[in-house]
Specification:
By secondary structure, this protein is α+β, with helices and mostly antiparallel strands. The protein has 2 helices and 4 strands, in the order αββββα. It has a 4-stranded antiparallel beta sheet, covered by helices on one side. β2 and β3 form a beta hairpin.
């Protein structure tokens, strides 16, 4: 399949890390988990930007913020201690979520899947 002529990728070259050379990410990483969000599977979405990772629930009531380099196990929720970081990351995450389609474009699925 050929890419459209006006295609602009939004990725980031990470090849240096594959060669063992540390390199900070320049862009945020976003996640969205569609489906049920009960029990341990509560987050609707998350963003990782710099040192911070923010997770939000579907109803946006539950918010957790972690300083990943200092807390890789995500055991110390810092949302109350850093409301400005929560506000900034929530704004970015909400902007990204608003850009997502409700359903995937049917043309994005491989013909090999029978669909």
């Amino acid at each position: 399949m050929e890419l459209p002529g006006d295609y602009v990728g939004d990725g980031e070259d990470r090849s240096e890390t594959l060669l063992g050379r540390p390199r900070e990410r320049g862009k945020a990483i976003y996640w969205r988990w569609p489906g049920g969000h009960g029990g341990d599977n509560w987050p609707l979405a998350a963003i990782r930007s710099g040192r911070w990772k923010l997770l939000v629930s579907e109803d946006r009531e539950r918010v957790e913020l972690y300083d990943i380099p200092a807390d890789r196990g995500e055991t110390n929720n810092l949302a109350e201690q850093h409301p400005e970081v929560v506000r900034e990351l929530r704004t970015e995450l909400d902007r990204w979520l608003a850009e997502l389609p409700d359903e995937p474009d049917p043309k994005c699925f491989s013909k090999l899947r029978g669909g």
